[in-house]
Amino acid sequence: MTSKERALLKARASAIDPILSLGKSCLTPEFTEAVREALDAREMVKINVLSNCTEDPRELAQTLSERTLSQVVQVIGRKIVLYKEIKKTEKKTEKKPERKPFKKQGSMRRNV
């Protein structure tokens, strides 16, 4: 990730609120799975580390990024921002059947 990309992501992260809180139990497999699901849905996740969590937020961010295959955008105080690019699936476009050109056959008026 380049510094310009990181700066752009930091700017985007300032506008979002934390959607997950990391508390007393710290990193559990369930919490890691919740972060993974949130990243799959949103690309960027902001996590609030509560004061009763005794571990260092920077270490938690590094561990979470390794487990979820994401990147740490920033750690400010007790807030962690993670980013994982969503792979866009290519939509398969079905070929529409070709239409035959319209041939004008005489007058469209009916003789009444």
From TrEMBL:
Residues 101-112 have a biased composition (Basic residues). Residues 1-95 form the CRM domain. SUPFAM superfamilies: YhbY-like (SSF75471). Pfam families: CRS1_YhbY. Keywords: RNA-binding. Residues 90-112 are annotated as: Disordered. One of its GO terms (molecular function) is RNA binding. Residues 90-100 have a biased composition (Basic and acidic residues). InterPro entries: RNA-binding_CRM, RNA-binding_domain, YhbY-like_sf. The keyword RNA-binding applies. This is RNA-binding protein. It comes from Parasporobacterium paucivorans DSM 15970.
